[in-house]
Structures are given as C-alpha cells and as structure tokens.
Amino acid sequence: MNFLSRLFRSPPIAPREPLPADPPAPPAPARGFWALAAYAPLGDWFEPGSQRTLDVRKIIHDARLPGPLPGLIYLGLRRSRRSRRQRAALARELIAAFSTSLASGESPREIAERFREQEARGHFLPRSKRRPRLDLDLPAPAAEWIERLLARARLQPALASQAAGELAEHFVARLAAGESAADLIEQFGAAERAARLLRSTRLPAAVLLPAPLRNLLDAVLVRARLWQSERADIARELTDHFDDGLAAGRSPEQLVVDFGDPRQAARLIRRAKLRSRPLAWRLLRHSLQGLSAVTGAVLLLYVLLFVRYVTGRPTISHNYLADFNREPQAVPPDDRAWPLYREALLMLPTAGRPNALSFGTSDAANESRPSLAAYLDEHRETLALIRQAASKPRFGFIYGDPANRDFLMKFASGADAHGESPDRYDRWLIECVLPQHQEIRFLGELLYADARRASEAGNGSKYADDVLALIGMAEHNEDAAPFLVVKLISSAIYRMALHVTATVAAERPELCSDEQWKRLAHAIAAYAEGGTLRWRLDGDRDVLDDFLQRTFTDDGEGGGRLTPEGFRRLYRDFNAAGPVQGRLALAWRTWGVELGLAGPLMSAEMANRKELMDLADRLWDEAEADYARPMWQWQESSAEKTMRALASSPLERTRYWPVLDLLPGTASYMVPLVAELTTQRRDATLTAIALELYHRRHNAWPATLDELAPSLLPAVPLDRFTGRPLCYRIIDGRPLVYSCGVDGDDDGGRPPKAGNEVASRWGPEAKLDADTIASAWAAAQDGDWILWPSVEKEWAE
Amino acid sequence: MRVERELMRGAGPAAVLKLLEPGAKYGYELIEALADRSAGVLAMGQSTLYPLLYNLEAQGLVRAEWRQSDAGRQRKYYALTAKGKRRLADDARQWQALVQALAGLGILNQPSPVSLKGAPA
Lengths: 797, 121
Description:
The complex is a heterodimer of chains A (797) and B (121).
Chain A: H1 3-7, H2 33-39, H3 56-63, H4 69-78, H5 84-103, H6 108-120, H7 140-153, H8 157-176, H9 181-188, H10 191-201, H11 204-207, H12 211-224, H13 228-247, H14 252-259, H15 262-276, H16 279-310, H17 320-330, H18 338-347, H19 363-366, H20 369-378, H21 380-390, H22 405-411, H23 435-456, H24 460-479, H25 484-507, H26 514-526, H27 538-551, H28 564-573, H29 585-594, H30 599-605, H31 609-626, H32 638-648, H33 650-655, H34 657-662, H35 664-667, H36 670-698, E1 727-731, E2 734-739, H37 772-780, E3 785-788, H38 792-796
Antiparallel strand pairs in A: 1-2, 2-3
Chain B: H1 5-20, E1 25-26, H2 27-37, H3 46-58, E2 62-68, E3 74-80, H4 82-104
Antiparallel strand pairs in B: 1-3, 2-3
C-alpha cells in the first residue's frame, strides 16, 4: 500500500475560516510609558527618541491604507502564529506590497479578496505551523484518533506524514487481525496523552505501546529533560526493551514493576546523558550555572537593598528658617529697614523697569536717559522712602511674616514662598526663594542712577545721601541671612557705591565739600567692619544640612542613608548626575530614575549622611583657611583639588553628589576672589578721595601715596595681587591709581589689550605656567588693572 | 537475596563490564543475564541498568551501536572498549583484594571470589 502518496492532496494545507470581508478597523495604537516599554526593541532604549517599532497597530495606523486593508492586516497578523518581531516585519512587508498594488491601479477590495484567500490557505503561517491535511483510509474512529494525535503533536509535515503512515499501517494490521477499532482506541487511550510522547520522541512505535508502558516512558522522558535526539534514542531503546518483554510473555504491568522507580531512572539517565554531551556544552552549562548563581546572589542582594531602601524615612528635626528669624525678631520694629523697602517695592511697578545702571555709561545708554530721568522723577517719593529704609540700623526681614504676603504674591509668584509660618517644617531651604534681596538690588540701581543724576546737576548733598543710602543698603544685605547669593548682592550694591564715588571724585571732585568726602570715606571704610573683606556662608552650610535631613534617614549618631524621597528629589527634581553617561544615559534616566530601579543601589552607593557632612565641613574649612590669606599668597585650595578628583570618578561623583553639587560655589576661590577685588576697589576709592583732599590742601598731587598717610589714610593700601603698595603715577598731570594685576609686574599703568578687567581675573590656572593654555592666558593678562579713574566701559560690561 | 544499594553501586558496573567481555549485548539481554548468572543477587531493573550503561558510555568504557539483531530487529548493542577492558581488569584485582581482606577478617568463609556463572574464572 502506497500510503504516503495518498496522504497529501491539494491543497496541502488544511484551509481555515477566511477573514471577514469587512473587518473592523484596528484598535488605536497604545500610548504611554508601558506601551513604549512593551513595543520598543531593547536596543532602542539606548538611543535617543525610542520608537515603538514593534507595535503593529502603530505601523498599520501610520500606513493609512484605504478600505478594509488595515483591519485585514491586523486580523491576519493576529492569527499568523508569529513572534512580535516577525509580525512587525510581516506588517511592513504587507503594507509595502499593498501600496505597490494600489499604485498600479488595483482597488482595495480586489487586494483584500486576494489577501483573504491566501490567508485562509495558511499562506502567512510559518512553515512549521502549517497543518497537513490527512486523508486516511481507516474506519472513522481510528482515522480521527490519528488526526487528533498528529494535530496535538505538531510535528513538521514530513515527520507527521511518516508518523501517520506508520500508525495507519499498525492500525490496518491490527484490524486485519480481527481487533475492532473501538478496542484499539481504548487500548491506546486518549490521543492527547499519546501526542505528548510522540512530540517528545518523534517515535510512533512508542505511541503504540500499551498505555501503562507508554505512560511510564512518557514520565521518564519528561522528567529527564533531555535533548530531542537523546529522548528519541532512549525512547527507541526502552520501547525495544518493552517489546522484548511483551514478546517474552510478560504483562505490561509486570514490566512496569520490573522497570523500577521512573523518577530515579529519569534522574540517573539525565545525569549520565549530561556527562556524554560535548565538552563545549558542558563548559557553557557550568558557566551558565555560575552566572545564574551570581545573578541570583545579585538579585537577592538587590532585594535586601530594596527593603532597606523603601523602609528609609527622613527625620526632619530642625527648622532652619526659624533659626534665621530668631535674630531679626529681636530687632525693635522701628529699627527694621525691610518694612520700608517692602513698601517701596510695592509702590514700584514690575513692568517697564529702566536699566538704571546705564545712566551716563555709554552713548547707547544715553538714549534712555530721558526716560530714566522721568522714571526717577515719577518715583521721587519712593526714592525718599528707600533712603529712609537704608538709614535703619538692621534689615529685619522675618521669614513667614504674614505682612510679606502681598510682596511675595507680587515678586515670588505665591505667598507661600517661605512657608505660611516659620514653624512649618515642610519648606526646603534650598527651594526658599530670596526675592527680598534680588528686588533690593533694583532699588540700589535706582539710587545709583539718582546719585549720578545729582552729580551732573551739581547737587552734592543729594549725591552724598544717595551714596550713603547705597552703602546702608549693602550693609543690610550683609546683615541678612548668610547665603552666598545674598553676599554677592550686598557686594554688588557696595560696588555701585564705590563706582559712583570714584567716578565723581575723578570727574566732578568739586561736587562735595571736604566734610562730605570724609563722611563718604568713613562710610565706605566701615562697610562689613572694614579690613580685608571675607564672607562666612553659614546659611549655605545650613542649606546642605537641611537638604540632608530631608533626603536621608537619621540613625541618631549623625549617619543615615538615602531615602526614596531623597532619590526622587536628587535624580528627578534636581537632575543629579548619574553614575553612567553617554549611550547608557537614556537607559539610566528611563529605568533607573523614572522607574526608580536605581534607588536601592544609589542608597547603598551614596555616602552616608555623616560622611557627607564631614566631607563638606572639611572642604569648607580647608577652602576658608586657604583663602583666608591675602590674595598674593594664594595657591589653588586643596578643597578644590579634592572636589575635582571626586568629580572625575563616576562612582565617587555618585557617592558624594550632594556635596559636589552644593559645595563648589561656596567653597570655590570665586567667593574670596570677589571679596578681594571688592577690597581692592574700596581701597582705590578711599585713595581717590584722599588724593582729592590732598590736592585741595596742596594744590598739587602727591609724588607718592606715602604722602597721604597717616593724615588722609591710615596706611598706604596694598596691591592685592603683589602685597606691595598700590601703584600710583602722575600721567599728563593727572593721577592714576592701579594694581599690577594678575601678572604681578608694573606695566606703567597700561591695561591689557584684551581689556582692563582681564588683569583682575585670578584663577588657579594662572599659577600653572607649564600649561599651554594657562601660558596663553597669562600672555593675555599682561598689563595693569586700572582702578582710578574708573574705566567706564568696564562698568558697562 | 538483594544487595544493598551502596554495594550494588560498586559491583554493578564491574558486573556489566564482565558480562560484555565475551561480546556485545543489548539491554534486555544484559538484564536477563544479570538476573540469571548472579542467581538474582545482582539483578537490576531498567531504571538502574540503562543509566549505568549510559554512564559507562560517557566514561568511554563501553561503546553503543544500533544494529540489526538475529531476529531482524534494530537493537542498541553495547560492547567493551579497550579502556573498558582495562577498567574491568583493574576492578577484578580490587574486588579480589577486597574479598581476601574480608575473608581474612572472617566475614567471608571462602578465600576466593565468587565467580559469575558461565564467566571464565
């Protein structure tokens, strides 16, 4: 009997129900993070702008095909029995083919009909998933049993046909021997159970064993978990063994008993067969086992870290705003300047503010002079109020004062900028805005412009009042919370006073009487208690303290670990630098930060609270000690070297991020440099006043600055760059006061070609002569820093 | 009489190697021969024999080969390799020493090892 020749008939594939002629439109593409996660290939996560390239709904939607085609593609893909990646590729192929057909003039309906027909014939199924159509010449129950068996076994077509042939031959032989189809089926048992063995062994003879032996064989092979070829070999050997036993007259039950424990057999067979596998496979297996063990250990460690992480809660025990309020609250209300500043600021519109610093500084700025003058006239009463405020002894700003509500609404976009009450603990100090200082700077600029205007009008008294008010305003900022930004605003207002004083001393010295000049000189000298200016930034230390108390746990001994709240704040809100950069940065941001998976690791990696505070204190103290010396003795601070070294290592940068992010501004040479340069400008301005007074007495300029001391100056001021007396020359009958600048040599009062200010830009790199760039920069700084008379252009910059 | 599993673990491979010494055999033959020639003492079920054969094969002591039997059926025959022969000789010496030692202790009555039925002495 040529059974195989009858097995396959056209069509070779069992046809399926065709797709509907008018299918519904595909659902809309999924959106959101999880859709991105589910439909973006893993490789896309490491590239910016990930696309959901595996989302067939999106692919079909973007193609915008007409008629029933989108719905047909979607339904066809759904039953194509392909992987997600294969479905996406098939969708693109179909869209391209349909587009070509449409372009050639074929109608969507014609294309749809052809597609439905092909799809129903299994055209889009993988070859391995196509079911052969059987036509067995057997009684119906037997044929159905074999068909069910083969359908469940899901063999390759060639194997299926071979198995069908062997099974059918066996059935035919048994039927010819007089057995009924029903008896045979009862003997072989459920086809579904036998299918597993057939799929596992590809051996029809095993399926034909009596049910007890077949089940035993199935149990052994399933438990042994071997390769297909190994299973087939064992199945064949054991089947032969059972056949020998049956032929020897033993019953199936007896053979099962003789076989022994199938679980033990499976275990021993597996062990023996694994030993027989190739060396490379065994090495790979051991490697994978090792890798699995390591992965398991890592996962276990991660779980432990996760539990430790999620149970961390910050303990907020200190209200720093309340600390800041303690001193101003003790100031009598009449001595507080802030209420008057606040009133002045509320009187001024926020829109249409003039550039008050431009008054008389350049030709371009002169064009705005009329409008600026009109603004000053319009707000004459406000200026008087500002002068009155500046004359008060203390600043007196109280955080959380309800009286500030209108001010904060106007300048800080909300009355809650400092918390409704100073007793509240939910206000992060680092987020505490400081409009009271930023806005006062504008008031200072108005005073500056008014002083310039008074000087041009020959009103010495008003001019002096404005300058004294500027100094008072600078003192108020000096008196306020010790933050870097507040000190810089104080310094800026103070420099406005210095500049307008130096300018008038050079251009209109006759404006002020001797007494007025002396009064101004004393006020200038008294700013921030005189001497070499330096700022203690305790407020910024408190910012770090407050930050750590809100982001770390507290173990009661100063230590503590990063909490989930701290991780969220650091990496999501403050966008802290992660331990990875480059191509992995996107994966870090997506998985590590947005999903928070990196939280436990960062909590373990980041230094504890005490270590961070100790490091911050050490760096601050080192920077403070290094830069407490006069500028001519400066070298780069060890604190800055330490910070640079820590920042250059990804792990160290992660470990000490809060310190490295919050500290550099306050522990840098930039802060004492601003103080030194302000000191130098102050000394030059006092020298200018002394020169003017000397000139009035002697009707001539002194030959050296030594002649000014001690009658007009307590001592000759020092050049902050050299430690020698400030440079002084008379050029064309006019005095010139200057510093040697960064290069340290006297160039005869000649500023650098790149600009006067360049001579004052000290930096650690200026000490590194061996460095090419530093050498080039040093060449650019060749020249002196002219202090008096002022260089107008410099101020405009 | 059944032998304890630990004893069987040592004796089983030697017995199978010995049975294969005259020529190749397939599994069913081996089981029958073990039960028959050791008077049931070394009888083992398929759950023990086949893993044992696979182990010997993995160690290179026996070689398996599918070939047609006298009855015309395909069977998997196992035959001793050269390495298997050396191992058998080595095992035989060790068993001999063990039996003599046990006899010296009075555990065994007879000083010579039990020879398998039909096997050369």
